[in-house]
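Hey team,

Filing this mostly as a record. A colleague (T.K.) asked me to run one chain through the structure pipeline before their review meeting, and I want the input and output archived in the tracker in case anyone asks later how it was produced. No errors, nothing strange. Just documentation.

Input sequence:
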Amino acid sequence: MATTNDPISDMLTRIRNAITAKHDTVNVPASKIKLAIADILVNEGYIQKYELVPNGNFQDICITLKYGADKNHKIITGLKRISKPGLRIYAGSENLPKVLGGLGIAIISTNKGVMTDKEARKQKIGGEVIAYIW
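Output structure:
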């Protein structure tokens, strides 16, 4: 199995590819931060659900994707990795990004865990801007 320098980017790409190919589920190697991101995606209504499935000595996150009335209507229209391992992007609580004027979400990694931009604004904390989802 190939290791990747940026597992979060890999997760977003797998989800993006699965939606483009109109798959029902997509498997992503599990990690704490990816579980936190999957949690946010469920809570914000971007995916139906996720569950941990064993894969040899490791675990995968099996993400059940969500579509509209038919599979041509995507719930997630875009995913964009913002902070990369080679170039970290941080934002203070007062200049957290608004995605599509508040229609999308920004996923922020803070010292109080991974949360959406709305949640971080409420708690008045900044952090690393991981990704935008809309």
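Quick notes for T.K.: The chain has a mean pLDDT of 95. Residues 7-20 form the longest helix (14 residues).
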